[in-house]
Design goal:
Blueprint (H helix, E strand, L loop, with lengths): L1 H18 L17 H28 L2
Subcellular location: Mitochondrion inner membrane
Protein name: Cytochrome c oxidase subunit 7C, mitochondrial
Keywords: Membrane, Mitochondrion, Mitochondrion inner membrane, Transit peptide, Transmembrane, Transmembrane helix
C-alpha cells in the first residue's frame, strides 16, 4: 500500500513539472533571487532568528506585562 502511494505521488509530481510552464530551473519559483549569496545568507539568518526567537519574545512580553 505504501509503495503504491509513493508511485502515485511520484507520477503526479513528474506530470506537474512536465505540464507546467516552468522549465524546472532550481530557484525559479522562489519569491527571492538566488544570485546574491550574501543577501540569501542574511535572509536565512533573519528568518531563523525570527522563527526561533519569537516564542521566547512572546513569553518575555507576557511575563513582563502587568
Amino acid at each position: 500500500m505504501l509503495g503504491r502511494s509513493s508511485v502515485i505521488a511520484r507520477n503526479f509530481s513528474q506530470s506537474m513539472v512536465r505540464f507546467s510552464g516552468h522549465g524546472g530551473v532550481p530557484g525559479e519559483n522562489l519569491p527571492f533571487g538566488l544570485t546574491n549569496k550574501y543577501r540569501i545568507t542574511a535572509l536565512f539568518t533573519v528568518g531563523c532568528m525570527l522563527g526561533f526567537g519569537a516564542p521566547f519574545l512572546i513569553v518575555r512580553h507576557q511575563l513582563l506585562k502587568k
